[in-house]
Specification:
Layout (H helix, E strand, L loop, with lengths): L16 E6 L2 E6 L4 H9 L3 E2 L7 E2 L12 E4 L4 E3 L10 E3 L6
Length: 99
């Protein structure tokens, strides 16, 4: 008789929670989440467009090739949100002063 195998998540093997800081706001994430997925889930966009344009940006290719999701860490390092994994204690600066 066929018996489906349960998925590991259904057994309670959820990834551990991590906390990151986005523009001074604490945000919960799961270990293994990309910064892009965390930002899209929490606020629906990654950053605002450059040069005073009020348009919101949400990433484009989602695989590290288009340069649309660059954000900064508090130390000044720039990273691609779509390929960078959330780590506990990360501090992100999206320069979002309009909200």
């Amino acid at each position: 008789m066929f018996r489906p195998r349960p998925h590991p998540i259904s057994k309670g093997d959820m990834p551990r929670s991590v906390s990151i800081d986005v523009d001074g706001v604490a945000v919960a994430a799961r270990a293994g989440d990309t910064l892009l997925s965390v930002l899209l889930r929490e606020r629906g966009y990654v950053r605002r467009a450059e040069f005073g344009n009020p348009d919101l940006r949400a990433g484009f290719c989602l695989m590290g090739g288009c340069q649309d999701c660059w954000i900064s860490l508090a130390g000044g390092e720039r990273v691609r949100a779509c390929t960078t994994l959330a780590r506990d204690g990360m501090k992100l600066v999206t320069d979002d002063r309009h909200d």
